[in-house]
Design brief:
Organism (chains A, B): Glaciibacter psychrotolerans
Number of domains of chain A: 2
CATH class of the largest domain in chain A: Alpha Beta
CATH topology of the largest domain in chain A: Quinone Oxidoreductase, Chain A, domain 1
Distance between the termini of chain A: 25 Å
Number of helices of chain A: 9
Oligomer: homodimer
Protein name (chains A, B): Enoyl reductase (ER) domain-containing protein
Radius of gyration of chain A: 21 Å
Strand content of chain A: 15-25%
Largest interface: A-B, 35 and 35 residues
Keywords (chains A, B): Oxidoreductase
Pfam families (chains A, B): ADH_N_2 (PF16884), ADH_zinc_N (PF00107)
GO molecular function (chains A, B): oxidoreductase activity, acting on the CH-CH group of donors, NAD or NADP as acceptor
CATH architecture of the largest domain in chain A: Alpha-Beta Complex
Chain lengths: ~350, ~350
Amino acid sequence: MNSTPAAAAPNAPADTALSTQIQLAARPVGWPTHDNFRTVTVELPPLSDGQVRVVNEFVSVDPYMRGRMNDVKSYTPPYALDATMTGGAVGRVVASASDTLAVGDVVLHNFGWRDIVQEDATAGFRVVPELPGVPLSAYLGILGLTGLTAYIGLLDIAALKEGDTVFISGAAGAVGTAAGQIARLKGAGRVIGSAGTAEKIALLTEKYGYDAAFNYREGPVRAQLAAAAPDGIDVYFDNVGGDHLEAALASFNDGGRAAMCGAIGSYNSTEPTPGPNNMGNLVTRGLTLKGFTVGHYMHHFPEFMREMTEWFQNGDIVFDETVVDGIEHSVDAFFDLMRGGNIGKMVVRVGAGSRLSDAG
Amino acid sequence: MNSTPAAAAPNAPADTALSTQIQLAARPVGWPTHDNFRTVTVELPPLSDGQVRVVNEFVSVDPYMRGRMNDVKSYTPPYALDATMTGGAVGRVVASASDTLAVGDVVLHNFGWRDIVQEDATAGFRVVPELPGVPLSAYLGILGLTGLTAYIGLLDIAALKEGDTVFISGAAGAVGTAAGQIARLKGAGRVIGSAGTAEKIALLTEKYGYDAAFNYREGPVRAQLAAAAPDGIDVYFDNVGGDHLEAALASFNDGGRAAMCGAIGSYNSTEPTPGPNNMGNLVTRGLTLKGFTVGHYMHHFPEFMREMTEWFQNGDIVFDETVVDGIEHSVDAFFDLMRGGNIGKMVVRVGAGSRLSDAG
């Protein structure tokens, strides 16, 4: 691994460079395959005035990306075909023809699945500090939009109150591991999680402070949730949809609230998935289901960052990452994420130093 | 019709009287039948200290009653077997052994499907004024919980804003006819309704101020709603559930809100009804589905009554009633309501005067 490739060649990219990029070649129907993607090598010209060149250290793969591969109306336009996959990434400025960003700056951006980015410095780079002992990948997870998603979902969308019993599906994922800990820190009475392997279930109670956890592959979710929450649940953080949402609706106490964050259980379905068969509980129990995407809540980012950094520094928050090495394995990382192969945040460690062109 | 039977015999019921009452004899499975009910005659003793005797003029039959016939956890306990069906009713005090209610007072109460009520005066009678030109049945509909349900659902639960496009299902029913008019009075941009007969559809646009209406029996709801709301909807008032909710989810603009009031489409199903197959739109469009029952919002009653009375007196509100004569036909009235046989509020006109015992 070469975690700071830029340091090796700080001034080289003033010339040309080769950027490896992953494009969407065709829209997946059902489960995506390698045929839906294409790896290209793009020659980056010398910097124009106002541009920066950034060597990515980590690139994010996230469940929401599956939705954007479809050509349907959504909160953001679908991914364009034959264009490089966009998404969160963190890297280091290796060359700058701009006054606003300097060589060595660590920047967070949304240019996605590529090892080297060359864009105008004003095109959406945010400088972030290097924190001692914290990998830069944390900015794609617990200290970034993933953490904010958990924070907003629980506190703003589901209006978590002290003493609430909270159920979180996909609990061992990036959002789930953050949400469980935030629920605990904010005074939840009981926190219950679901995941799909014995290893994940053990982590939830042993590392992430969940009071109870169950493996959704081992029996009906509805019965397992009812057993784990004999007095019902007040808040549900939904990352899965389907049978998990149905189970939550069955277990909700009066006035229950669900933060609808995702539905990874149906992202790769080719047929529309029937909804829960107990929607009538919304009326009789006065329930609220509220969907959200974090992009609409960026105004809460400073408040989140203040609180999360404090928790972090106090040792109140732990996190896991599942790291896949090599930008050329981004697609495999994404597939593994879709199959639940990750614990905590799934990231791609770029290791692009060796591909920096110094022959231009 | 004898709309003020009490006036004929103001002091008679100090003695015994016979009360005709409808009891739940067995819990319906699927569509209820006459076998699920029983009509009994109860001899009321002379008044005890603190009691009143009330002769009902109108008794309410409402969709929510079907849910209470099942033995399931809900916001109110299920109806007890072999007990008289409770529910809204309005009547007149014909005898009083209490200082708080006087003979002649018109009272609203929840003692339900019976012609004569005898209870402690403190047991939940609310005195209401007789308004010129307004039948007392209006207290069971537009001036009562039905009107409040429409008002709360639109303004509080769905947070109606000026200019919103609003879709209301079951639009020709008691709640729907009120909701359409309230939406219009509160500045909705476009109001769309669905109902199940040509007569109802015509009324919606010609009498109730709907901009568009469609017959859900004439084609897929999703396609008909999309045609009626080419720019999408912002608010959905759900009285039906099922395909109507799915259509609303398909047509919602970003940030859409649904007030989930009822699901008459599935009350008589013996199998759990699959939910909408597009729940994922909650996430991608940031939608909110919020269920409610009016009982939790009684603190808004004074504000509702002030505003509704003003609209009423200004001629801004119209209403229809479907009246079934005779307490002994309460069950038929309820069945007809379940089949959508009503326009506006369905009430039973008791006409109990002739059955007052003056032979005690």
